[in-house]
Design brief:
Length: 405
């Protein structure tokens, strides 16, 4: 008599996994990074909100609850990003802009360490042709407080070269930028303007559509100026430089692959391949933190468990054994490492597409199936480990498996 389990698809034999390793690793990883605090100064209409949305994928209202710390200053925060928003200073007030700013900075200095300013974006509309004296006074106050200031020209009009296709600012804006980098007054006397860089930016493309310009350079300079303790938090919250996130993610996948290999140092039967699941789930939780994704808010507990089963179960190991000769009926260290690396790479791709908005978070329950690792993915990892990425024999073997799969 055929046992009941023999008549069911292999996937039905897989136990429902516990999602806690994912959640716990995600929480631990998120707690490591702290918060990056950015100060943005600029008058109403200069484009501060658009700039924040373009770089961080969120506007002030979505960063968190706005706390009116003092008149003219609001602090918006979420787990890894804090924004100090300085409103424009009124001309003709009894208190000069420099004095008012000094008072605001004193108030902020008394706040907790996790709220202290890392970098300042001082925003000026590119259509202006000179800085005002109040602007100069405030930048000098920021410098005196030991804060690195990036002077950001916003709403820059970019033009495309008709032959090379390269984008550049208009001649007037470039002339303004050149003056800012070495400012002099009407008499030719040098003006002390202690800024670390002058950056030309447009939050969006022409007519408010498409990608902006100059934002990648702004992000790179901001990271360069950030304290070492805040750099990873900035890498996490910014949305423009994906290679930074991949560089953080690769060691996580490598560590999990090594841990899986150690767990299978004594080969385990395919039926027991779920022993690798906690390692793989923890890896996924850590990767989700790097991409600033909170899956507990995206998925129900049952959906997270279903995802866990689909991405880390025994079905992939079974399929691998059927397709690849010589693997045997057990999962050894090499196979365990390859399975985990393939799962990590597939999960990274899903996280990246969620992070950049290519997949809407509301659609994740149906989307993850398109990102599950395949036998071909595992074989590529397996052959790469054994023969080297550029080995002709390795590439031939991968091609054969792709054809059979």
């Amino acid at each position: 008599m055929t046992p009941p389990s023999a008549s069911r698809p292999p996937e039905d034999d897989e136990p429902r996994l516990d999602g806690r390793p994912f959640i716990e690793a995600n929480s631990q990883e998120r707690s490591r990074y702290g918060r990056f605090n950015l100060a943005i100064i600029g008058g109403t209409g200069v484009g501060k909100s658009s700039l924040v949305n373009a770089v961080f994928g969120r506007d002030f209202a979505r960063v968190g609850k706005g706390l009116p710390v003092t008149s003219g200053v609001h602090y918006y925060q979420d787990e890894h990003l804090g924004i100090w928003d300085f409103e424009g200073f009124e001309i003709g007030s009894s208190t000069s802009p420099g004095e008012a700013l000094r008072a605001h900075l004193s108030t902020i200095a008394a706040r907790p360490r996790g709220e202290q300013i890392a970098v300042v974006w001082y925003c000026v509309n590119a259509s202006a042709d000179r800085l005002t004296q109040p602007d100069i006074d405030m930048i000098q106050e920021l410098d005196a407080a030991g804060l690195p200031v990036i002077l950001v020209l916003t709403k820059v009009q970019w033009i495309k070269h008709p032959i090379s296709g390269r984008q550049r600012a208009t001649p007037d804006t470039e002339e303004f930028r050149d003056w800012l980098e070495s400012p002099v007054d009407a008499d030719g006397n040098r003006i002390a303007l202690p800024v670390k860089a002058v950056m030309l930016t447009a939050a969006y493309g022409p007519h408010g559509k498409g990608a902006g310009h100059g934002l990648g350079d702004l992000v790179t300079k901001t990271l360069e100026l950030a304290p070492d303790s805040d750099k990873d938090a900035f890498r996490i919250v910014q949305r423009l430089n994906l290679p930074w996130k991949r560089a953080m993610a690769r060691p996580v996948i490598a560590q999990a692959s090594s841990a899986a290999a150690a767990a299978a140092a004594i080969p385990v039967p395919v039926a027991d391949a779920a022993v690798l699941a906690p390692i793989q789930l923890a890896m996924m939780g850590r990767l989700a933190a790097i991409y600033d994704l909170e899956f507990k808010s995206m998925l129900s507990e049952s959906a997270l468990a279903q995802l866990s089963t689909q991405l880390t179960g025994q079905a992939l190991a079974r399929s691998l054994i059927k397709v690849v000769p010589g693997v045997g009926s057990v999962v050894n260290a090499t196979v365990a490492a390859a399975l985990t690396a393939a799962a990590g790479t597939a999960w990274l791709r899903l996280c990246e597409h969620l992070h950049t908005g290519k997949i809407d978070q509301s659609q994740i329950s149906g989307a993850w199936r398109d990102y599950s690792p395949t036998v071909v993915d595992v074989v590529k990892k397996l052959v790469t480990q054994r023969a080297g990425r550029k080995s002709p024999g390795a590439q031939i073997h991968i091609a054969k498996v792709e054809a059979e799969a």
